[in-house]
Amino acid sequence: MDLSALNPVAIAVSLIVAATPLVFAAIGELVVEKSGVLNLGVEGMMIVGAIAGFAGANVTGSTTFGVLCALLAGAALSGVFAFMTQVLMSNQVATGLALTLFGLGLAAMLGQPYSGIPAPDFPRVWLPVLSDLPVVGRLLFSHDWLVYVSLLLAGTTAWVLTRTRAGLVLRAVGENHDAAHAIGYKVVLIRTGAILFGGACAGVGGAYLSLVASPLWVEGMTAGRGWIALAIVVFASWKPWRAVLGAYIFGGVTIAQLNLQALGVAIESQYLSMTPYLVTIVVLVIISADKRRARMNAPACLGRPFFAAG
Amino acid sequence: MERRTFLAGLGATTAATTLGLGRARAQDPVKVGFIYVGPIGDFGWSYQHDQGRLAVEEEYGDKVQTSYLESVPEGPDAERALRQMAQSGHSLIFTTSFGYMNPTLKVAKQFPQVKFEHATGYKRDANVATYGSRFYEGRAVIGTIAGRMTKTNTIGYIASFPIPEVVRGINSAFLAARAVNPDVKIKIVWVNTWIDPGKEADAANALIEQGCDVIMQHTDSPAPLTIAEEKGIYAFGQAADMKEYAPTARLSSIIDDWAPYYIERVGMVMDGTWEATDTWKGIASGMVKIGDYNNVPEDVAAQADAIKDGIVAGTHHPFTGPIKKQDGSDWLAAGETADDGTLLGMNFYVEGVDGELPS
């Protein structure tokens, strides 16, 4: 085995591509959960975003328009969830699962005319001088623009949640909806907004898969990434930067194991394939070991329906 | 209570829609079922099986009624899906992935009046037939092309699961490539899935980064081809032609054609001549087809054609000695060809393949 054949820059670039869809979906779901709603439909919203983005980009030839379509489609699907859980008071867990099943089916149906065609090229950022720098140029300044958007999104979310009044209100609704309601905040409206934001993010994450990571449409192409995003939110103990870290660790382990295999490392590939999931489970165990801290991090009203009394 | 009724309703609707039930016909058509491991929209393995199903419908019209279940996971879920099909009046059921082998045999025992056909497996029973294609013949043809086209002398191979079918393909491709290019090496990445475009793309990128300039795959989605197109290297279509995904990068393809077999077997059930046979045919029968060459220089094409014609004529066998196993022990003596039994259970790499075969 010759480890020098590994190109760390190339691995880092692939890692970012593998992690970015997870960053979008996880940040979206994090905001939803911070508002006290558990939406298990991330997988469904991602796959609908994937086909909407692919279709939009193919019809118009503009990948930017595709991303916009994905954003709207993800938000629209989450709108169904918001209506069911916030207005009709349906069970959040069941509705979320149904949303995933519905999304997978809907995407398969919508996607039929789009099988067998390639996606338009996705533009990469190119900055004079900077992008040409050795190592740093490829590592920092020549990704597709969605990578930068995903990091900006995480930063903005962290800032809004902890440093602004809007974030405080959102967290109040998630911690104690009765108290928030009593002092006059519109719980249902705020939660609906959070759900729509989560859907839009998941949709863009899906579009990243079908337009950048593997530019094509195949049924079921999200392959469980929505569930990973849900795990990452818990892994991150509901903190945006930790969610980014979680997504990058997951992406990194995936890419590292593929590269090690190509190098001919004598570890059974089943174990290598398992590692990203194992790492996630181990971190989850470590995080939840301290029960009081785990409880402090989780929004107190997570998953609980809100009835406006009086 | 609310959740229970909701889930029950959900279960009933998914079962009804995916099975495509409810088209009753007057003269009791023969019901034929298909179980697919991926979605029919994968444009690869499951898609080609579904093309076979459609060909059966076209051939027999009103005399047959087909239904299918797609994206059925291998393992216990498959058993449930199979039982559901067996109970709903199907007289012939095709299970189209290796991992359905044991579930098929188990359910077949419980429904002796139903006939089962399991693809790519090796266990049979009174009512379980097996069928498969000698894809390794196709691998020998595209392996020849890959061996000639690589400039870095490194071929990448994206493999799914370490089952004999896949191992055979790797060995066949490698032997063919080495026959035309003694310096060629093969790098293998196991992704442990049949279909996950994102992961297949990641695997393709990892192989390209490590110097591979021709990529072969034994997974079902066209993602590696799109990456090959983007990175300006070569790849091959898998199961379906896949040309539309990589007009420049795709050199050729191995295409599965199940239609003639499915039509024949359904006909046998209709006239009562069906038996639990084992069918394993290759290029000569048309079950394995080689896609058009694209960007392949004439002399390389001629070399690939010579291999193909030799296989059709029976004068060339992709596994012809002298061949040693990876550990250096003798396998085939000079001039000796591999017997089907060894090929069907192949669990070793041939000499020259790097890396350890996952068990």
TrEMBL record, chain A:
Asked if the keyword Metal-binding belongs to this entry, the reply reads no
What keywords tag this UniProt record?
A: Cell membrane, Membrane, Transmembrane, Transmembrane helix
Q: Name one Pfam family in it.
A: BPD_transp_2
Compartment list? Cell membrane
Q: Name one GO cellular component term.
A: plasma membrane
As for membrane topology, the entry says: Multi-pass membrane protein
Please provide, alphabetically and separated by semicolons, the GO molecular function terms listed in this UniProt record: transmembrane transporter activity
Q: Could you list the residue ranges forming a coiled coil in this record?
A: none
The answer, when asked if Transmembrane helix is one of the entry's keywords, is yes
The name on file for this protein is: Nucleoside ABC transporter membrane protein
Automatic annotation (TrEMBL), chain B:
Q: Which Pfam families match?
A: Bmp
Superkingdom, according to UniProt? Bacteria
In Swiss-Prot or TrEMBL terms, this protein is called Nucleoside-binding protein
For this UniProt record, give its keywords in alphabetical order, as a comma-separated list: Signal
Report the PANTHER family cross-referenced here.
ABC TRANSPORTER SUBSTRATE-BINDING PROTEIN
Its GO CC terms? plasma membrane
Q: Where's the ABC transporter substrate-binding protein PnrA-like domain?
A: 30-303
Recorded source organism is Albimonas pacifica
